């Protein structure tokens, strides 16, 4: 309280606090109760126009401090006097003794704002009020520490606890022995954050690891904290103990280590309720998918070992394990197509589990707590093919799983050689990344990482990888394009043993001579965008897009008519009725696109009318020679390679709004140069606002 009282009548650390006057004061005879009421003058940081409209330069608040030395409580109430008929602001703070340790102090703060009317600027006033309130909360710790230090410099390091007057004391001394006097409190790192109902526990100058009588398990050993957990305030230590005890009493499975519990507490700013919720969800997830055993029971496929351009590489200057990822050299589409999302997720989980293990090892090696790792991402080679929508979706799902189950494990992320396309990828990914995690990102364009504030600030020169100009050989795979011969069908990917998320987004279809495969897409809003991505796995096909104002008959699995051939490897659905006539019942909105075996096709179509759109993959018949009805020798040889006149495609389609499409990089209208080395031909139709890309 002595430190707090020094904020009055004015405080240089709070520029908006201009002055204050005492309007009322009361002290009880035994000095146990002290109530003081002040009128405070504030210069609110608001637009000059708003102040002019309101007709004021300053606003006034009334603050009432009620100190009860007998019960060891301090209550602070504040409300606005200015504009009280238009805006109602109430704030309440309280300091009380911690129930488990009388040398600790609990701090609670809450506030409410009710804007009835304010000259039509209600929204602006609300934003200003929240900004000021948030700023005051963040500044509170700094201010109280400033005045505590000021007291120490004046030689005041101890404030005796209040005791009753002598007469009262003699009456009660026999039945109520006086509790030992504790020294003045020091305020540690604040746990308060934006919002309401913030709580904080404040530390006394006595050792936080010294057990209180009767509660030997309520504290952690100081050496253990320093060696394995790092610097913890008493509040943080208390939260860790309480959450761990709760897990021991209620959780039936494996109890995580203190380091792991601490990560979840830090991820939620030591809000026990929020940390408990996400930790329980994570423990259930780990048990369900046997994540604890992933390093011992799962071996990554050879494709990952050959083409996933990432791996562990020594450690940074802080002793954190260093993971290197050459994202620009990685064929994300090829990996998804060859492995499916499940295997990719499983591999990323194994990397995180290995990271946890390496953190424990480095903690032992360096003799200090190391709970996170550093990730170095090289974007050299990143281009439009990395922004392939299914690949980006897979990345977002991986980020979502990792954020939920491995919080506070990323100590620093160094992004090097970011190309021009990187801001687009960042725009897509950053909303899914926690704010605390985003603050750990350092991004370097070009060769900026070689200059001041670059890589040498975080990694020793001796271990900078060779591909970044260093002398250390890095054994991370170089990546490269995954051969299409390794691609797998949707059915093969669906046979994975355990699903950690939704099934693959790709579907497979068989196309026969006389039996095309068709997909129906209903469009309600004109100017929607239909996007597609497909691979021709077998044979040659013709891709068409049609529009109809009326819905076709419900799709039926075709028995393939005269062929009487079933389709075990894929779907075959026909929608266009045989009695329908082109130009009368439906119309073609795109020129036919001939796609050869082995080609990948990505495209988009901006719809001009609502209704029903049909995407069609049709068997491509070899054209006969122009001067004779006999087929050419090349055509005959080519037709022999397509057994039973059967083709196979794997496809993915999606409909998105045009306003989202333009900025999402799914738009292939702007992607013609993006797939550089993969692109072989491009077909576009400006009339229908569509574009397609073929890559071999």
From TrEMBL:
Residue segments, region Disordered: 169-193
Domain CRAL-TRIO: 300-476
Gene Ontology MF terms: RIG-I binding
Localisation: Cytoplasm; Golgi apparatus
One annotated GO biological process: negative regulation of RIG-I signaling pathway
Domain of life: Eukaryota
Pfam family membership, one: PRELI
CDD domains: SEC14
Domain (GOLD): residue spans on this chain: 502-655
Domain PRELI/MSF1: 1-156
Keywords: Cytoplasm, Golgi apparatus, Immunity, Innate immunity, Phosphoprotein, Signal transduction inhibitor
GO cellular component: cytosol; Golgi apparatus
Record text on subunit structure and interactions: Interacts with RIGI (via tandem CARD domain); the interaction is direct. Interacts (via GOLD domain) with SLC18A3; the interaction is direct. Interacts with SLC5A7 (via GOLD domain); the interaction is direct.
Role, per record: May play a role in innate immunity by inhibiting the antiviral RIG-I signaling pathway. In this pathway, functions as a negative regulator of RIGI, the cytoplasmic sensor of viral nucleic acids. Prevents the interaction of RIGI with MAVS/IPS1, an important step in signal propagation. May also regulate the SLC18A3 and SLC5A7 cholinergic transporters.
Protein name: SEC14-like protein 1
Biological source species: Dryoscopus gambensis
The organism's taxonomic lineage, starting at the top: Eukaryota, Metazoa, Chordata, Craniata, Vertebrata
Gene: Sec14l1
């Amino acid at each position: 309280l002595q430190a707090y009282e020094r904020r009055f009548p004015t405080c240089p650390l709070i520029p908006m606090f201009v002055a204050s006057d005492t309007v009322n004061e009361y002290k009880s005879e035994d000095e146990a109760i002290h109530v003081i009421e002040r009128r405070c003058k504030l210069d609110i940081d608001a637009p000059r126009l708003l102040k002019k409209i309101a007709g004021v330069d300053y606003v006034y608040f009334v603050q009432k401090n009620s100190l009860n030395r007998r019960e060891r409580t301090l209550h602070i109430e504040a409300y606005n006097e200015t504009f009280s008929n238009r805006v109602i602001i109430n704030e309440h703070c309280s300091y009380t003794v911690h129930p488990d340790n009388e040398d600790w102090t609990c701090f609670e703060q809450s506030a409410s704002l009710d804007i009835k009317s304010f000259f039509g600027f209600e929204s602006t006033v609300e934003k200003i009020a929240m900004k000021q309130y948030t700023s005051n909360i963040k500044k509170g710790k700094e201010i109280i520490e400033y005045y505590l230090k000021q007291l120490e410099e004046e030689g005041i390091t101890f404030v005796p606890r209040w005791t009753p007057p002598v007469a009262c004391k003699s009456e009660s001394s026999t039945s109520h022995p006086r509790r030992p006097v504790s020294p003045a409190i020091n305020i540690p790192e604040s746990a308060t954050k934006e919002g309401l109902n913030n709580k904080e526990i404040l530390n006394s100058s006595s050792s936080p690891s010294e057990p209180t009588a009767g509660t030997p398990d309520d504290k952690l050993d100081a050496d253990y904290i320093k060696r394995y957990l790092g610097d913890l305030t008493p509040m943080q230590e208390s939260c860790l103990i309480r959450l761990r005890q709760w897990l021991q009493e209620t959780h039936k499975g494996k109890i995580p280590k203190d380091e792991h519990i601490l990560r979840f507490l830090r991820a939620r700013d030591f809000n026990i309720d929020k940390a408990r919720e996400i930790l329980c969800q994570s423990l259930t997830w780990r048990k369900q998918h046997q994540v604890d055993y992933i390093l011992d029971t799962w071996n990554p496929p050879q494709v990952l070992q050959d083409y996933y351009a990432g791996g562990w590489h020594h450690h940074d200057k802080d002793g954190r394990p260093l993971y290197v990822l050459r994202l620009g050299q990685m064929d994300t589409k090829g990996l998804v197509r060859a492995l499916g999302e499940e295997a990719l997720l499983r591999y990323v989980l194994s990397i995180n589990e290995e990271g946890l293990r390496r953190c424990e090892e480095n903690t032992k090696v360096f003799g200090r707590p190391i709970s996170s790792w550093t990730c170095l991402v090289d974007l050299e080679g990143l281009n439009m093919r990395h922004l392939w929508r299914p690949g980006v979706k897979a990345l977002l799902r991986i980020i979502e799983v990792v954020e939920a189950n491995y919080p506070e494990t990323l100590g620093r992320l160094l992004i090097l050689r970011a190309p021009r396309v990187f801001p687009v990828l960042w725009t897509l990914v950053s909303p899914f990344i926690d704010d605390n995690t985003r603050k750990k990102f350092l991004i370097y364009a070009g060769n900026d990482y070689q200059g001041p504030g670059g890589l040498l600030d975080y990694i020793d020169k001796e271990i900078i990888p060779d591909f970044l100009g260093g002398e250390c050989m890095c054994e991370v795979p170089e990546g490269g394009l995954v051969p299409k011969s390794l691609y797998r069908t949707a059915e093969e990917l669906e046979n994975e043993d355990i699903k950690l998320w939704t099934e693959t987004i790709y579907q497979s279809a068989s196309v026969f001579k006389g039996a095309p495969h068709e997909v129906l897409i209903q469009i309600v809003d004109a100017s929607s965008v239909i996007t597609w991505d497909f691979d021709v796995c077998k044979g040659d096909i013709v891709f068409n897009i049609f529009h109809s104002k009326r819905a076709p008959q419900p799709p039926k699995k075709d028995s393939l008519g005269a062929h009487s051939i079933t389709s075990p490897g894929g779907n075959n659905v026909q929608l266009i009725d045989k009695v329908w006539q082109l130009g009368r019942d439906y119309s073609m909105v795109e020129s036919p696109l001939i796609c050869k075996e082995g080609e990948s096709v990505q495209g988009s179509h901006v719809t001009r009318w609502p209704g029903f759109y049909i995407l069609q993959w049709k068997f491509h018949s070899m054209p006969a020679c122009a001067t004779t009805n006999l087929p050419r020798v090349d055509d005959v040889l080519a037709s022999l390679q397509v057994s039973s006149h059967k083709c196979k495609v794997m496809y993915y389609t999606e409909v998105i709004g045009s306003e989202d499409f333009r900025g999402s990089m799914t738009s292939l209208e702007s992607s013609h140069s993006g797939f550089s080395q993969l692109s072989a031909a491009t077909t576009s139709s400006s009339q229908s606002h569509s574009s397609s890309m073929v890559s071999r």
